[in-house]
Amino acid sequence: MQHRPSSPEGLTVADRVARSLRVVPDFPEPGILFQDITPVLADSALFADVIDALVAPWRDADVTHVAGVESRGFILAAPVALALGAGLIPVRKPGKLPWRTISREYALEYGTGRLEVHADACVEGERVLVIDDVLATGGTAAATCALLEGLGARIVGCGFLVEIQALHGATVLDDRQFQALVTR
Asked: How many percent of the chain have pLDDT more than 70?
């Protein structure tokens, strides 16, 4: 991808993302401050710069697949996979994948959830990068990593648009490498 200047105002990509994120209180549950990335996606230049920034730390990691977590993670993972010359693994909520799956339950900031991948999503030794929009409690990312490691994949790292540091999601990732473009 072509590198673009940070912005006419001299802001970094991270600064521009932080300014563009829309925080929606009490969604999807009371007490949650939802990080809405749609304003970032609506700005084509910023969206392109975000993809460049998400790809950069992993460019030399020999990534074979990028796992995108439903649903906003799909939006970011697909162009990251293309930029890295890697395949895409959709990580979905139960009942959304058409073939045989494996699943894992995980804790959310506001309850529990379950994720699935196709049983043949990857094989022993493949190098997978996990991409999602927000690292909050870390449950979704940790469950995704565990699912793929159960298939024999090596997780090279996890990339996020936003990390909500106060929720300590990075601690759940154990010793896995991760990068977040914006920390809140």
From this structure: 95
For residue 28, whether the previous peptide bond is cis, meaning omega lies within 30 degrees of 0, is yes
Residues annotated as part of the active site: 72, 109
- Classified as helix, coil or strand, 146 is helix
Rounded distance, CA 183 to CA 177, Å? 16
pLDDT, tens only, 78-97: 999 999 999 999 999 999 99
Quote the pLDDT of residue 14.
Answer: 97
Q: Between the CA of residue 160 and those of 94, 101, 102, 151, 152, what are the distances in Å?
A: 23, 25, 24, 23, 23
Q: Which CATH class is domain 61-183?
A: alpha beta
Q: What is the pLDDT of residues 2-11, one digit of tens each?
A: 445 456 678 9
Give 34: exposed, middle or buried? Use CB within 10 Å, 0-12, 13-18, 19+: middle
- Return the domain boundaries, the chain: 61-183
Q: 113: which strand partners?
A: 106
